[in-house]
Amino acid sequence: MAKRAFQALGGLALVSLVAGGAAPRLAHAAHSQADATVSIGVSIPLLQYPNLPEGIQYGVQIAVAQANAAHLVPGVTFTTNVLDDTINNKYDPVKEASNARKFIANPSVIGEVGPLNSGAAEGSIAVYNNAQMAQISPANTLLDLTLPKFRAKFEPRTAAGHGPITYFRTIAPDTIQGGGDALLAYNVLKVRSVYVVDNQGSYGVGLANDFEYSAKGLGMKVWGHAELDPTQPKMGADAVAANIASQTGGKVDMVFFGGEFGTTGGATFLADALKAHGLHEIFMGGDGIYDPNFISQSSNGGVLTAYASKGGPDVATSKGAAAFVALEKKTYKFNYSTYDVFSYDAANALLNAYAAAVKAGQIKVGQPMTQNTRGTIALWVAKSNFKGLTGQISFDSNGDIKAPLFSVYKVVGSGSSAHWQFVQYDPIPKIHL
Fold first, then answer.
1. Angle, helices 319-332/52-69, rounded to nearest 10 degrees
2. Could you tell me how far CA 109 lies from the centroid of its own chain?
3. What CA–CA distance (Å, rounded) separates 5 from 18?
4. Is-above-0.85 flag for pTM?
5. N or C end of the chain, less CB within 10 A?
6. Residue 430: per-residue pLDDT
C-alpha cells in the first residue's frame, strides 16, 4: 500500500499526494449514515471542450476521495457537486452566475472550484462575494479579476469593508505568464519581431495584451495586433494570416496567439492559415493551446512550429504530479489535461479551510452553511500555506498564488507522431503586477 504524506497547517493534519514512488490508491472508507454531507461545487463548461473540464472535475474528486479516506473531518462525508456553465455549447457568464446561486442555495456547499474560463468568472465572482462563499479557480488567468482597482466591481461586499476576499486562484494571471513568455521568446528563442493575434475572448485578449506590453519593453518589434472574428468561417483566420504576410513581407520571427484551440478558439485555424500563406515562423500561445487536440486538429501541419506555456509543473518530471497523473488514469481511465493538478490543489485549499474552521470551533459538524460560516471558510482559505502539486499553496492579499510556475513545451515530430515536449520553465518577470 502506498503511503500518504501529511503536512501541518496550524496543527491541522492535511492530506496530500506522496512526493515520490507509486501513485497512492483511492481508498473509499466506510462512513456512518449519520455523517454530515459537505460539498464542493464545480462549475465548468462540460459541453465545450474535450478533456479540460473533466480534468478539473477529476482533480476535485480525487482530493475529496482522499479526504474521506483519511477522515479529514470526523463525522463528515465530502462530496462533489458538478454543474455545466455552457449555453449553446459555449461557456456563458450568465449561466455561471446561475450555477453560483444554486451552490449558494445549497446548505451543504462550502465553496466552488472553478470556473474554467475567465469570462465565466466575470459573471459569478460578485455573486459569490455577496454570499461570502470562497471561489477558487484552477484556470482563470485574466489579470483584472484580482486587481484592487476592480474590487468594487468583482467583490463589492469586500470593497465596502463588509467581508473577506472570496475569489482566489491557484494559477497565476496573464501578466506573469505573458511577461514570462516574452522573456523566453527574447532570451531563449532569440525572437526580435512578433505579430500578436487574439480571439476576442477575455482570456485571449488579456494574455495577448500582456505579452505585447512585455515584448515592447524588451525591445521587440511588434508589427501589429489583429483579432480573429468568431462570426466568420474558421474565425477569419485566413484573412488575418494574409494580412500578416502582406504587412511583414514574411519578415516576422514569431506570431503570438492569445486564445484557445477548437472551433471557437481559433488557434489551429490560425496556425494552419499562417503556413498556407508561407509563414513558417514560431507560433506561440499559452495554456489555451497546450492540448493534444490542438495538434490533431491541424489540417496541414501549421502547428508544427508551436510553443506553449502552461501553468504548473511538468507532470512527467515532477514526482508528485506524476503520481497524481498515474492515479487519475487508473481511477478514471483519463489522460491528464492542463488544469487537473490546479483543481486538486484548489479543492484541498477548501477542504483544509473547512477542517481548520471546525478544529477552531468556528463551525460545527452538520451545521448548514450560511453567509457567516462561508465567510469564515474564506478567511481560512486566505491563510492557506501547504505544499501542493503546483508548488506552495499560499495566496497574497488579492487572492493570487504567491509562487507561480509555468512550464514551456514545443511540438516535436510530425504527422501522427507530433506531440508536445517539455522544454524548460518560463522565466518569471521580476515585477508582478
1. 100
2. 21
3. 5
4. no
5. N
6. 61
Cα(271)–Cα(123) distance, integer angstroms: 31
Query: How many H-runs (helices) and E-runs (strands) does the chain carry?
Result: 13, 18
What was the pLDDT predicted at 354? 98
CATH 3.40.50.2300 intervals, the chain = 5-171+315-393, 174-311+406-425
Q: Concatenate the DSSP letters of all residues of 279-348 into one string.
A: --SEEEE-GGG-SHHHHHT-SSSGGGGEEEEEES--TTT-HHHHHHHHHHHHHH-----TTHHHHHHHHH
Pairing of strands 221-227, 134-137: unpaired
- Per-residue model confidence (pLDDT) at position 103: 98
Do 171 and 143 form a contact (C-beta atoms < 8 A)?
Answer: no
What DSSP state is assigned to residue 427? P
Cβ atoms of residues 56 and 50 within 8 Å: no
How high is the pLDDT of residue 406?
Answer: 87
> What is the structure's pLDDT at 34?
63
For residue 49, which of 124, 122, 98, 116 has the smallest C-alpha distance? 116
Nearest-5° Cα angle at 337, 154 to 307: 90
Low-confidence ranges of the chain (pLDDT < 50): 1-30, 432-433
Structural fold of domain 5-171+315-393: Rossmann fold (3.40.50)
- Closest to 173 measured CA to CA, from 213, 146, 204, 154: 146
Residue 333 — left, alpha, or beta (φ > 0 → left; ψ -120 to 50 → alpha)?
left
Cβ(283)–Cβ(274) below 8 Å: yes
Closest CA to 169 of 193, 206, 201, 139: 139
Identify the three-state secondary structure at position 275.
helix
> Is CATH 2.60.120.460 the classification given to domain 174-311+406-425?
no
Given this model, what pLDDT does residue 319 score?
Answer: 86
Q: What crossing angle do the helices spanning 202-218 and 118-131 adopt, rounded to 10°?
A: 110
* Residue 33: predicted pLDDT: 54
Nearest alpha carbon to residue 249 among 224, 266, 267, 272: 224
- Measured CA to CA, the distance from residue 368 to residue 256 in angstroms comes to 48
